[in-house]
Amino acid sequence: MSTLKVALIGNPNTGKTSLFNRLTGLNQKVGNYPGITVDKKIGFSKIDQKIDAEIIDLPGTYSLNPSSIDEDVAVSVLTQKENPNYPDVVVVVVDIENLKRNLYIYTQIKDLGIPTVLAVNMADRMALRGIDIDIPKLEKQLKTKISLISTKKNKGISHLKDLLANYKELDTTPCFVDVNKGQSVLPKEKTNKHHLETVRRYQFIKKVLENTFSQDPQSAKDLRTFLDRILIHKVYGYAIFFTLLFLVFQALFSWSSVPMDWIDESFANLAQWTSNNLPPGVFTNLVSEGIVPGIGGIVIFIPQIAFLFLFTSVLEESGYMSRVVFLMDRLMRRFGLSGKSIVPLISGTACAIPAIMSARNIENWKERLITILVTPFTTCSARLPVYAIIISLIIPKEQTFLSFNVQGLVLMTLYLLGFATAIIAAAILDKVLHIVSKSYFVVEMPNYKLPLFKNVAYNVVEKTKAFVFEAGKIILAISIILWGLASYGPGDRLSNAQEAVQASHPNLSEGELGAKIASYKLENSYIGVMGKFIEPVIRPLGYDWKIGVAVITSFAAREVFVGTLATIYSIGSEDESTIKERMKKEVYDGTEKPVYSFATGISILLFYAFAMQCMSTIAIVKRETNGWKWPLIQMFAMSGFAYLTAFIAYQTLS
């Protein structure tokens, strides 16, 4: 049985990824292209009884004239036969309503002499848009075989597989012949000759479509135009976008509260069960006081993370997110950026790492650098656990404003604050960085469509799983380290804990004595000594030494904050309450003043809104800017700003 290598390529938003999912199902894997951090998606498909195919999903690109790293990847795969991903056949995916623009890259690939199939997607919209295509004539003029497909309706996939199985019969001669004999199809730089070639290619495409493609506006049921007039309106568009954001954040708290409470109680019960039923000893303490509370501190937020990815996936699948990009271009230009920068900023709500990598499609170095530097201000999913638990502590669940849940309003405000800070920082950097450059903004406006349940579900599961497992590895390691540091201490302080406590508090009941001994041991452990050492620096922010330890450990990853506190509060505790209940009971040493007051809560929220607390993001910025200069400037500037705003907030509100 032979294995066929198939490369999928096309402009963004042509349905290439949906076709990839149709061909491969869940039989996929994601890696990196050799030597770079661009994602490489590979899947496997059964073409027929004798042929298996390896499907390579190349980055979406508008042409093979490389102006970004993503386009460089496509060029290297399609032009270097020694490349391990060099395909036997290429499938160029185009949108039925954007053939003129989409066919440009097809003419370039056809010039390479690789067997090429044209997959015309969204064929189910032909009648709706009054479109008619003469397929045999179009095949003849483009010198290829064409498959009309609909990834939404799952139609035409079998025909496409038949064409792939018989790829050796495809015509490999160019369909477009430039008058400039011998000119490279892939110019190294954009010259006048290249622009001339571009004009001639579009002239050729226009002539081909004049004879093979027709659209009757009278028979078209143009709902798209009607919706666009509203959704990208200079007034209504913004109002609708912020209304959607408002509804999303209301739902994040109201829908996820029940499963979150159940998970929180379940992990509290599990920790207590392991403590009561496993043999007494170091291992049992590690499991019940370190591992279970630490992992529980991140698992509790799976419902909110999943709902966030659900909403963003639906907006992307429906075609609305591209309208948001177009809409926000008007705003971005006032701050020295273009609409291209909004893609990393919006995708940063999931994770800053792929968001920063997506800035590669910004050809202008100044705009790209500014985008990289300000994207971490956007509220990523790693901040959500911190926001969720602190908001729930300082804002009562039942508190409403004009019938709306105040917790959801606060969460939305934090997201808008992060975005606004990124924009303001970009404007400042635009004035400070004296880099002369010019760029143009192009965005694909896909058709509106009902999101495919399969694609949405796959995105939610994969992104949530990636978040949990990536965070879980860090939290598990840190939880074990923290438990060790909190269970042991210098000298004989811990072994003499009972005597020391009884000497200073002679009239305590048995329960009070146990709690005091646990607190004494924690304060005199290695982690307590460390926390007390940094407490003078963080106390002006309203933090005690325990929060200080959580802040320090969360510089590895923000979500570690909750896991760290869950571990610290569980050490030596016989309290069966949840992490949230323990945090509510926490008071400053020697006082009855609660640690998690409104002032401290706001201070923590602002610190995490602005601080650069992600080692992985710093590493990516170093790689994308080719040095340590910018990531170090970014880290110290963001963290310094975070400290200052948290300080002002606490001192003002307390």
Question: Could you walk me through the main structural features you see in this protein, from its secondary elements to its overall organization?
Answer:
The chain is an alpha/beta fold. It has 3 domains: 2-220, Rossmann fold, CATH 3.40.50; 236-432, no CATH class; 476-653, no CATH class. It contains 26 helices and 11 strands. It has helices at 16-24, 69-79, 99-111, 135-142, 157-165, 192-212, 223-231, 236-277, 282-299, 302-318, 320-332, 342-347, 352-357, 365-374, 384-394, 406-432, 453-487, 497-504, 510-523, 526-538, 545-553, 560-570, 579-585, 598-610, 615-625, 629-653, and strands at residues 2-10, 28-32, 39-46, 51-57, 89-95, 116-121, 131-133, 145-148, 213-215, 400-401, 404-405. The strands form 3 sheets. A 7-stranded mixed β-sheet has the order 2-3-4-1-5-6-8, sandwiched between helices. The protein has a two-stranded antiparallel sheet with strand order 7-9. The protein has a two-stranded antiparallel ribbon with strand order 10-11. Strand 3 and strand 4 (51-57) form a beta hairpin.
What labels would you give this structure?
654 residues; alpha/beta; Rossmann fold; 7-stranded mixed sheet; 57% helix
Structure summary:
This protein has helices at 16-24, 69-79, 99-111, 135-142, 157-165, 192-212, 223-231, 236-277, 282-299, 302-318, 320-332, 342-347, 352-357, 365-374, 384-394, 406-432, 453-487, 497-504, 510-523, 526-538, 545-553, 560-570, 579-585, 598-610, 615-625, 629-653, and strands spanning 2-10, 28-32, 39-46, 51-57, 89-95, 116-121, 131-133, 145-148, 213-215, 400-401, 404-405. It has 654 residues and is of the alpha/beta class. The protein has 3 domains: 2-220, P-loop containing nucleotide triphosphate hydrolases (Rossmann fold); 236-432, no CATH class; 476-653, no CATH class.
